[in-house]
Amino acid sequence: MDRIRIRGGKPLSGNIPIGGAKNATLPLMAAGLLSDGPLTLENAPDLADIATMRALLVQHGMKVEHDKAQRRLVLSGAAENLEAPYDLVRKMRASVLVMGPLVARFGEARVSLPGGCAIGTRPVDLHIKGLEQMGAVFDLEGGYMHAKAPGGLRGATIIFPQVSVGATENLLMAATLAEGTTELVNAAREPEIGDLAMCLMRMGARIEGIGTDRLVVEGVKRLGAATHPIIPDRIEAGTYACAAAITGGTVLLEGARMVDLGAVVRTLRECGVDVAEETEGLRITRKNGLRGADVMTEPFPGFATDMQAQFMALMCVAEGASMITETIFENRFMHVPELTRMGARIKYHGQSAIVRGVPKLSGAPVMATDLRASVSLVLAGLAAQGETIVNRVYHLDRGYESLERKLSAVGAEIERV
Ligand code: EPZ
């Protein structure tokens, strides 16, 4: 099995190109089910999760071409098989995003329940309740959610009791083809949702309130072909910003946008990291020592839970103490014991962790159970004395394209072995 070997201590310097956002691309691909297309997605990343979503759509009966050289995905055709099987859904929870589009367009979907996940229980009750409010009838049998709406979905006012990115996306897609008006209240405002809404509008959907927590969708009879550029990956950008900061380097994140990274940028600045917006992207520079800072994860525009592990790695070598509180997922501190093995001083209780900065981390063999936890160990390895081996690299391949190539191009000593 592949591993990543890092020899730490090299300040990074140079440019890192930021790819299209994984968490925007997955729902955009599911949106392809809403029309015969073609739907052309530009700036598509080449990641394991994208390949999984492609396999899912292909088994539904769609044609999905991924031109990796051109960074383009072209989706066309219609679903014939309305079942999303367990084998694919258990590999990637975002598979449940096919449910809204399938029920809206074909009046039926049978989607495996995703089951538990390393970072939390992650139920999908909000997706189900919302579709029920729009007239779908659900049957839970054999581990599958079987939804039926033979006469089509109808508009409804859906008030989310809790902010959910996936439920907002699923219901937004479903609402585009429902009869009448759907109002999504307390909707998630992540940039990936704005991107999905923009793409749906290009396909002919009628949506108001993009970027706010109240989306109003006027259903249309059908959606058509469109070409849509995927937004840059703010989490990939934030991760490499932490890489520049933890090594005391200077890096230009090509294509990264300040609007997507507000809370992360504010926090980095508080820690003593310079962030400047340039025409080609964001420049991250750290010349002096790092100071500790407190963060709490929140739905957008708050500090992203997908940046929590990376920020914790950074705080391991900052001066003073930092309190990190995770409010989105109940089990998202699995990087803590691994960082501790590298010499970090972290204590956590419940949803909060106290990190007391140390002058140096030391390299060690480590492994993690999810994508962002794994990359936090890569960051720690970049700053550590000696050699770090990160095991279970397949987690990284789900969300970071050419990680070791991008980092070695800016001076890191990192390789896949
Ligand atoms: C998305 O997951 C992202 N995934 C996650 O990124 C990200 O961590 C998360 O949003 C939060 O920002 C994709 O976009 C593909 P949620 P999602 O529904 O949509 C609870 C990564 O590393 N909830 O916003 O599944 C849920 O348990 C990944 O790239 C319910 O209770 O997240 C969680 O506590 C990991 N019932 C909270 O809401 C529901 O029906 C937020 O989850 C749905 C969610």
UniProtKB/TrEMBL annotation:
Pathway involvement of the protein, from the record: Cell wall biogenesis; peptidoglycan biosynthesis
Superkingdom of this protein's organism: Bacteria
Places the protein is found: Cytoplasm
Function recorded in the entry: Cell wall formation. Adds enolpyruvyl to UDP-N-acetylglucosamine.
Catalytic activity entry: phosphoenolpyruvate + UDP-N-acetyl-alpha-D-glucosamine = UDP-N-acetyl-3-O-(1-carboxyvinyl)-alpha-D-glucosamine + phosphate
Alphabetical UniProt keywords: Cell cycle, Cell division, Cell shape, Cell wall biogenesis/degradation, Cytoplasm, Peptidoglycan synthesis, Pyruvate, Transferase
Residues modified to 2-(S-cysteinyl)pyruvic acid O-phosphothioketal: C117
Chain sites annotated for binding UDP-N-acetyl-alpha-D-glucosamine: R93, R122, P123, V124, D125, L126, D306, I328
Family: Belongs to the EPSP synthase family. MurA subfamily.
Keyword field contains Cytoplasm: yes
Gene that encodes the chain: murA
Domain Enolpyruvate transferase stretches: 7-407
InterPro entries in the record: Enolpyruvate_Tfrase_dom, Enolpyruvate_Tfrase_sf, MurA_subfamily, RNA3'P_cycl/enolpyr_Trfase_a/b, UDP_GlcNAc_COvinyl_MurA
Enzyme Commission identifier(s): 2.5.1.7
Class of enzymatic activity (EC top level): transferase
GO molecular function, one term: UDP-N-acetylglucosamine 1-carboxyvinyltransferase activity
Organism: Falsiroseomonas frigidaquae
Positions with a binding annotation for phosphoenolpyruvate: K22, N23
Pfam families: EPSP_synthase
Active site: C117 (proton donor)
Protein name: UDP-N-acetylglucosamine 1-carboxyvinyltransferase
